[in-house]
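Run: sequence + zinc ion -> complex structure.
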Amino acid sequence: MKIKFLGTSAAHSYPLPFCNCNICVKARQMGDKNMRKRSSVLINDDLIIDLGPDFTTAAFMHQVDTTAIRHWLQTYCDSESFGAAHVITRMGEYAVEGLKPLFLFASPETIQDMSDKLAQEKAGANLIKTEWLEKLGVVATAVKHGKEYVCGSYAIIPFDTNQNKTVYFIADDTCKLFYALNTDKLTTETLDYFSEHRIVFDVVILDHTYGFNVYADGHLNANNFIKTIAKMKERGIITEQSKVYASHISHEGNLPHDEFLMLAKKHGYEVAYDGLEIIV
Ligand SMILES: [Zn+2]
Ligand SMILES: [Zn+2]
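>> structure
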């Protein structure tokens, strides 16, 4: 499995557009891995997690053939995670040609929220009614917590978080990946599922919105990130061989990339950056 990070920032980009804190100033000076777009990941060229506002920009910067994407998992719908303006261009009236179907998986609530955002682009547009799904070339599946779905060559299992967002387990013959952003706590029930099914992750991508000792509400800070990894290790769902990556990174308490990575490695994890590609 090839995993490419298209974006690794929290909701408002990193650096924050108008912020002059030390971290944002340094990020602008240093550039490169310190410039983070909104979080999104591409798997093997054909599966995207979160088709967000930076979708086309990320594709231009990181050499992505967006027309090859056939499968689409959405974790929730907000300005950071859903780019309605990109999706609406799938309509015939944009003179789009050679459209291939896109298979969307998201919770029913997220599909409703995405529909509301699409309707702001084009009156009546939605991801629920057959007429509109056909117009947009989308096949939508409203997913249920803990149920397994076939998604192309992948098996996926969505789990609800305590924040009404969805985290995903994605597996193919080569890799077991767990993608969990926008949460401050993986529920015991979710962790139990993996323990009971004796699943060991090859790769875990976890929310690391805040640095050490920053008050964290709805997201993980460094302290809770480390506690979460420890908990997963205790359960045996990650091992020394598993790769753990921090993503969804904000300017609050986090360090410039190279320093951040050094500190993270001491605690047994890696820090993702935009354009990072790993092969498992
Ligand atoms: Zn977020
Ligand atoms: Zn800042």
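>> summary
The longest strand covers residues 154-160. The longest helix spans residues 108-121.
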